[in-house]
Every structure is written in structure tokens, then in C-alpha cells.
Amino acid sequence: MNIAVFASHGGSDLQAIIDGCNNHAIDAKVVVVISNNSDSMALQRAAKENIPNYHLSSRQYDSEELLAKKILQVLDEYSVDMIFLAGYMRMLHTSILEKYNNRVFNIHPALLPKYGGKGMYGMNVHNAVIAAKEKETGVTIHRVNAEYDSGEIVAQTVMKVNEDDTPETLAARVLEREHEFLVEVISDIIAGKIAL
User: Fold this and answer.
1) Which of 2, 139, 146, 177 could form a disulfide with 31 if both were Cys (CB 3.0 to 4.6 A apart)?
2) What is the CATH number of the domain that holds 44?
3) Is position 184 within any domain?
4) DSSP string of 126-195?
5) pLDDT of 167 higher than 90
6) Mean pLDDT (whole number) for 9-28
7) Which residues form the domain of 70?
8) β-pairing verdict for 153-160 and 136-143
9) What is the pLDDT of residue 110?
10) Does residue 65 contact residue 93 with C-beta atoms inside 8 Å?
11) What confidence tens digit (pLDDT) does each residue in 91-145 have?
């Protein structure tokens, strides 16, 4: 199965997916990486692994439709079967969601539907979890639709919030689990345990 990964910044989730493919924990291949940020570490990680990578952002195109058209061309070129959003900070155009219906997934560092929606990403999520004195948090993988973090949840893993956790210590622990969980869930999708 050919996977496209979209990422905006560090790309550590992307690296986890690449490593999972390389060590055969995931029976698939990352065939292309797309970022809306020309300086993203994700593009550098892809280049280091000899994976085709593209900086495609709205600044380069006159409309969202033209940007989406270019993204779709790239996805076609690499015969992409599934898209994974790994820290991608933009909403995908409806034309992409329609073409890859049920085949676009996102990872979120909380137990959705809590702490999801516009603006709820990265440290914003962990700050909110700590502020609410939650006893549990975790990682959610869900299908992507036209509304932030509201698509069908396909898998969740629960983690305890320690009494002495700060947003930073919690973020570090969640990210570590995120990397493992991504590999587990993508393997389940490819094995047909989670329907496409």
C-alpha cells in the first residue's frame, strides 16, 4: 500500500511511519511527503530517506482549488492509496477528501472528542488537559472530514496523567506513545482490521 504523509513541522510522526515501513512493522511504503512549510523538518527527513517530497502551500497558488488540484496531481503520480496527516496544520480541500474518502487519517494528541477543534494542536492540547485536571489523556487516530477533529474515531490509546505532570512532561510522554501507536494502527488498517 502506498502512503502519502502530510506534515507541517518537525515530522517525528512521519519518521515513526517511515521507520515502521523500513523495519516491516508496516507492510506499506511512504511514497511521497507533502508539507505546506518550506522549512519543515518533515521535508528534510523525507529527502534523507530518498522519499519524493513537495512544498505545496496556498502562497504558491491563486486559489485553494488550484492548490488542491496540484496536490491531487502529485497523489496520482505516486499512486497513493492512503493519506496520513502527521502534524499537518491545514484543512484539506473537499476535492481531496472526496477522492480519498475514508482513506485520510489524522493523529491527535488527546482523547477526542475532548480537546479537539480549531486551534487545538500541540501544546495547546496538553495545556488544556493539565488545566482541566484530567486524570487521563491519550492519542486518537480518526478519519478526516471537512471539520477539524470530528471524523470517525478508528483507534484510541489511553494514558494516565500523573499528578506531577506539566504540559511539557505530558507532551513528551504522549509523543512517545504516539509514535508507537501510529505504527500499530497503520498496520491494522493495512491488515484490514480497520476498514478503508
Assistant:
1) 2
2) 3.40.50.170
3) yes
4) HHHHHHTT-SEEEEEEEE--SSTT-SPEEEEEEEEPPTT--HHHHHHHHHHHHHHHHHHHHHHHHTTSS-
5) yes
6) 96
7) 2-190
8) antiparallel
9) 97
10) yes
11) 999 999 999 999 999 999 999 999 999 899 999 999 999 999 999 999 999 999 9
In the β-sheet with 82-85, what is the strand arrangement from edge to edge?
53-55, 29-35, 2-6, 82-85, 104-108, 136-143, 153-160
Query: Which pLDDT value is given to residue 102?
Result: 95
Distance CA 110, CA 129 (A): 8
Q: Is the dihedral of CA 5, 11, 13, 15 positive or negative?
A: positive
Task: Give me Rg for the CA atoms of the chain.
Answer: 16
At 76 the pLDDT is 98
Please name the amino acid found at residue 24. Answer: H
Is residue 188 within 8 A of residue 26, CB to CB? The reply is: no
Is 171 within 8 Å of 123 (Cβ atoms)?
yes
CB 4 within 8 A of CB 84: yes
Residues belonging to the active site: 108
Counting the structural domains of the chain, the total is: 1
The torsion angles phi and psi of 152, rounded to 5 degrees, stand at -55, 130
Residue 56 resides in a domain: yes
Does the pLDDT at position 196 exceed 90? no
In contact, 53 and 35? CB cutoff 8 Å: yes
